[in-house]
Write a structure and sequence with these properties.
alpha/beta; six-stranded parallel sheet
């Protein structure tokens, strides 16, 4: 293949491996977009490193994050030896933290970049290829808000929309503020313009994303900016579902609850990390609320949104946690009656205050407490799901959510409260992004079943978008053997409606 100017082009493949939180998932969509804009083509699913460029988007939250990375890098070393021209890049939080260490331990890595300069990846890859040496570039502050970069969204019907980056909190177990920096908020008009552009493409569900999403506005000087943003999303025609993650109890104010309850397309779902039910441990974690405050927020949400499904994060075995402290967590879980909980055994994060605290809990004690908590939450999740039996729900059909759908002749999707629903496959064609009406007949701890005939099927613009995406793929343009073009998409249109400007956890 060659260009009109005679320069040779070649189609190169890429693979992005993502670890960690939703912020990393969203960043990986940007990394994929950058690479495709530079002419690379995604490697076939299951290629397992058999690509011209392999990018690791890393997480530094868990204690064994580095072991996982270097183990995976080690497995690619012989593959790179056999594949001339193959490049390996490491980005994300672990890259921001470890910097030069990565190339010292894995000298076959070509590029190391951080959380603040993901837009530089194609240029760094090209520079490493030309100079035949590793390129390490870690920015200390954000160079460009990620949403200004090209993107390859994983879904045609649902999308992340980043409203802020960074975090202003100082939780003793968390290294994120050191790696992502202080909170920076996007202007409301820019966010709404992106949402409107996504809806115009066929997206019908968006998730507002921030490290502490409801702290949005602290950088703008408006304490009610987040609730105004939710209400403004309610005015966007064609936007059917709005979600957000993850809020902090400190910033969960009554105006946010009111906006959730009064904005029809804001879904009756809330994921709010509790971390511990013990006031003593919450203080040691430097969490700025106590059990009573947390449970009070849940009570208010349920009073305003009776069918809300509430989920949380909980850490078991934080340094100094006694059996009495753990029982306070168990009490809070019984009182809160979470639809589900993401439970974690405390893991030392190098560089955090908690890693050096006295009173580190023996592994066997943490494991035993963890198992008790999981058993309690499983019981509660099942009981809460049983309350859904007999309800008629609108389910947005999902892609890849039901691993056994082929064998069971079912499809899967998400209810408004984000519960996973498996339902009988209707006679007519249904596409991801379309909406079906079903009656729940059975509940398990982590999913619902609708075993009867499917009710109404509503074909949507989101389904059309999925169908269009899955039509015959366009011909790849290939990578120009020279500096690849770096694309920043055309400016998004100015939002027709917006929330009050200037005013995260």
């Amino acid at each position: 293949m060659s260009t009109e100017s005679g320069e040779a082009t070649v189609v190169k493949t890429y693979e992005v491996r993502t670890y960690g939180c939703q912020m990393n998932v969203h960043d990986s969509e940007r990394l994929s977009g950058l690479l495709e804009d530079a002419g690379y083509v995604r490697a076939p699913q299951g290629s397992d490193g058999d690509a011209d460029v392999v990018v690791f988007n890393t997480c530094a939250v868990r204690e064994n994050a580095d072991n996982k990375l270097y183990g995976n890098l080690g497995r690619l070393a012989p593959m790179k030896t056999k594949r001339p021209g193959m490049q390996i890049a490491v980005g994300g939080c672990l890259a921001q933290k470890d910097r030069d260490t990565i190339v010292d331990r894995a000298p076959w890595v070509d590029v190391v970049f951080g959380t603040h300069n993901i837009g530089k990846l194609p240029v760094l890859l090209e520079r490493a290829r030309i100079q035949q040496e590793a390129q390490i570039e870690i920015a200390e502050s954000l160079e460009a808000f990620p949403s200004t970069l090209p993107t390859r969204r994983e879904s045609a019907y649902a999308a992340w929309v980043s409203i802020s980056v960074g975090c202003n909190n100082t939780c003793t177990f968390c290294i994120v503020p050191a790696l992502r920096g202080k909170e920076e908020d996007r202007r409301p008009g820019d966010i709404l313009a992106e949402v409107e552009a996504l809806v115009a493409e066929g997206v019908s569900e968006i998730t507002l994303l921030g490290q502490n999403v409801n702290a949005y506005g602290s950088d703008l000087g408006d304490r009610e900016a987040f609730s105004k943003l939710l209400r403004a999303c309610g005015a966007i025609e064609g936007l059917e579902r709005v979600r957000f993650t993850s809020p902090h109890p400190r910033d969960f104010t009554d105006d946010v609850i009111a906006a959730m309850a009064e904005t029809p397309n804001v879904m009756p779902q809330l994921h709010m990390p509790m971390q511990s039910g013990s006031d003593t441990i919450l203080k040691a974690m430097r969490r700025s609320y106590r059990q009573e405050r947390f449970l009070g927020i849940i009570e208010k949400v349920r009073a305003s949104i009776p069918h809300a499904a509430i989920s949380t994060d909980i850490i078991v075995g934080f340094p100094g946690e006694t059996e009495e402290d753990f029982q306070q967590t168990m009490h809070a879980v019984r009182e809160a009656r979470f639809a589900n909980a993401f439970t974690f055994q405390y893991s030392k994060r190098p560089g955090t205050p908690a890693a050096d605290m006295e009173g580190q809990i023996p592994k066997e004690v943490v494991q035993e407490r963890y198992m008790r908590l999981v058993a309690l939450q499983e019981e509660i999740s099942w009981d809460e799901n049983k309350k859904q039996v007999g309800r008629t729900l609108e389910v947005m059909v999902a892609e890849g959510e039901g691993r056994k759908d082929g064998a069971t002749h079912r499809l899967s999707g998400r209810a408004p409260d984000n519960r996973l629903v498996h339902f009988t496959k209707p006679d007519e064609e249904v596409r991801p992004g379309d909406v079906v009406t079903v009656e729940i007949t059975y509940a398990a701890p982590h999913h619902l079943l609708a075993e009867g005939p499917t009710g109404a099927v509503r074909r949507t613009r989101a389904g059309d978008a999925w169908e269009k995406r899955n039509a015959a793929p366009a011909q790849p343009k290939g990578v120009l053997l020279g500096i690849p073009t770096l694309g920043v998409p055309a400016p998004l249109p100015v939002a027709a409606s917006g929330c009050a400007a200037p005013s995260s956890s």
